[in-house]
Amino acid sequence: MYPTWSSNRLDCAKRCLSFLYILTWAVCLNDARKEIESKLSTIEWPFLTIHGEEDAIVNPQASQALHDKAASSDKTITIYPGAYHQLHRDIEPDGSTARQQLLDWLVGQEQTRLSQKHLQ
Q: Serine aminopeptidase S33 domain location, by residue (predicted)?
């Protein structure tokens, strides 16, 4: 009887610690979200947002809100139909399409930066 009670108690302790870890993580994530949201109107640098429409972890509307509220004039958003949370690792063709979009965007940003540098 004692080993069963002991192992159940240990399992209970593990579950409680796991819950506290997840709760702490969720509180920190929510605090970060609030801080980011409070600063969105000051974001003026270029940024790319890609999101999977079927993402069950982060609602795609969060990416749309980020895009809509940011002050940057150079911002791009793509929401991939049928894709999930880790879009860059998603099933094909979405994974390779998202990776290629990121590379193309980065190259475009560098070309813009270099051409602006030459104009100075």
A: 23-91
Per-residue confidence (pLDDT) for residue 9, from 0 to 100? 67
The pLDDT value recorded for residue 6 is 52
Dist CA 32 CA 24 (whole Å): 12
Query: What count of residues does the chain have?
Result: 120
Task: Classify burial at 90, counting beta carbons within 10 Å of its beta carbon; exposed 0-12, middle 13-18, buried 19 or more.
Answer: buried
Q: Tell me how far apart the alpha carbons of residues 47 and 27 are, in angstroms, rounded to a whole number.
A: 26
Distance of CA 5 to the CA centre of its chain: 42
Geometric angle at alpha carbon 52, from 26 and 70, rounded to 5°: 70
Q: Are 73 and 31 in contact (CB under 8 A)?
A: no
